[in-house]
Each structure stands twice: as C-alpha cells, then as structure tokens.
Amino acid sequence: MGLLHSVQGGNTLATIVELSQLLANRQITSRQLVEQALAAIKDPYGEGPRTFLSVHESEALAAADRVDAQRRDGASLHALAGIPISIKDLFDEVGFTTLGGSRVLVGTPAATRNSTVVERLRKAGAVIIGRTNLVEFAYSGLGLNPHYGTPKNAFDRTTGRIPGGSSSGAAISVTDGMAAGAIVAILPDRSASRQP
C-alpha cells in the first residue's frame, strides 16, 4: 500500500490527521505524498483521466518541496501543510479557467483571483494537486459527465457503476489515492454531493 493508505495497513485510507502527524514527525515527506498521488493519477489502468480536468504536476511538486524545506528548517506549519488536496472545478484558482464540468466555458479567461477556500488552503500550505471532474455545473446527483467522462465507482469498477454526487471526480480522487482530501461544494439548490 502507498503512503496515502493507513498506517494500520490494508485498504483503509489514511486520514489527513494521520498524514499530518507523519509529516510533522518527518516520517514521510510531502514530495513522497505528491509523487504517490501523481502516480495514481497517471496509472494507465486507473480513473485519473476521468477524475481530473487538469493536473498541477509541476506546481504541486514545487509546493511540496517548499513545505518540506520549511519543515527541515524547523518552521511551525499548519496541519494541512504538505497534504495533497484536489479542488472541484467549481472553485476559482488563479491562472485556470473554471469550467464547471462544461465545454461551454472552454476558452474563457482564466481566474484572476482565488476563491476563498483555495486561498485559505494555499495559506495553510496544502498542495493543490489538480482540478476534479464533476457533473456539468454541479446540476445533478448522479455523477455523470458526457464531456469529460465519468469516473467509475470505487466499489464496483467491473460493472462500471457511477460514483454518484455532483462531486464525482473529487470522491474518486480520494478513494483512489490521487489526493488525501478534496474540496467539494454542497449547494442547497442542487443535488447534494456525496462520497461513493
């Protein structure tokens, strides 16, 4: 099992608290976590291409290296520092076009400022690994996306069950070890996002 899996072993995912403690105790590095997440995203038999609309490989590795250097220098860091996190593609992130799972917004200008949640994650030192797929404009609870593909449910890939929730990519990014956590949105006027 990889580093994103629990220290207790098995297929249990490690919690962000467990990973944060391992990082703080210098038993693992942020770079190791990010490299493992990137390997899971790139797995040719995995769900990466249907899970992520964009992957921030070079930015994530650089952010991980910065956090690791700060930790080596004895800096007091936030619990999220160095943890790979995926962002649902509904949240603005400087330099990226927020597509909302749609092709309609392709070619529109990139965001010029971060959404509040992205800004807070960056200040905490979290490593944003990429932007996840979702139901077009988060307007369904099924998890389907005809434009970018639909990631398969982690519990039944053989029959290709749908992941459910508008945050389908976010959920699969965590269950498949492509991120330790995911930022999703639960909007009262739409179907609620949920894990598979």
Structure description:
- Helix 5 links the parallel strand 2 (84-88) and strand 3 (127-132).
- The protein has helices at residues 16-24, 30-42, 48-51, 57-72, 116-124, 168-175; strands at residues 52-55, 84-88, 127-132, 181-183.
- It has a single domain, classed as Amidase signature (AS) enzymes (Alpha-Beta Complex), CATH 3.90.1300.
- The protein is α/β, with parallel strands linked by helices and 196 residues long.
- It has six helices and four strands.
- The protein starts with 15 loop residues before the first helix and ends in a 13-residue tail after the last strand.
- Mean pLDDT is 87; it is low at 188-196.
- It is globular, with a radius of gyration of 16 Å.
- The protein has a four-stranded mixed sheet, with helices on both faces.
Brief sketch in words of this structure:
This protein has 196 residues and is α/β, with parallel strands linked by helices. The protein contains six helices and four strands, in the order αααβαβαβαβ. Strands 1-3-2-4 form a four-stranded mixed sheet, with helices on both faces.
